[in-house]
Amino acid sequence: MTIGLLDILHFFSAFILLLFSLFLLTQKKGKRLSNFILAVFLSSKAFGIINYLIMHFEIRNPHIYFLLLPFIFLYGPSLYFYVRSLAYRDFSFRKVYAFHLIPFLLVGIYFTVIYHIQIIATKI
Fold it and tell me: Could you give the CA distance from residue 88 to residue 116 in angstroms, rounded to a whole number?
């Protein structure tokens, strides 16, 4: 297996996204809620890239793959919440916004039931 330029760019992109997410979470000034939502968006993008790299390099560890897979479903809701937090000065989470997270929760529950709870013999 060869590592190409695109693979290196994917690796560094994921690293930079996670690093910037950590930076946003440590900020004390400014819009902390907006920073948190942007950090969730960037982290979910990084997890998507890491999942791609796991599949591309055929890493035989499905635990990590199935653990990170539901985060792909956070792209849309986190971007939506981030834009709303910037557009509206008095933005706060409401119970209605939880409906946007249903796909993320359903996929997370699905892989927990189908894969993570199973005994080792079944997983193999």
Answer: 40
What is the distance between the alpha carbons of residues 49 and 8, in angstroms, rounded to a whole number? 11
CA 115 – CA 124 distance, rounded (Å): 10
Mean pLDDT per block of 10 residues along the chain (124 residues) reads 88 97 91 93 96 86 83 95 92 92 93 77 66
Dig out the tokens for 30 from the structure.
């400014």
The DSSP H or E segment spanning 79 is helix 75-87
Cα angle for residues 39, 8, 23 (degrees, 5° grid):
20
8 A C-beta contact, residue 54 and residue 61: yes
How many residues appear in the chain?
124
**Domain boundaries of the chain, sorted by first residue:** 5-123
Give the separation between CA 45 and CA 76, rounded to whole angstroms: 11
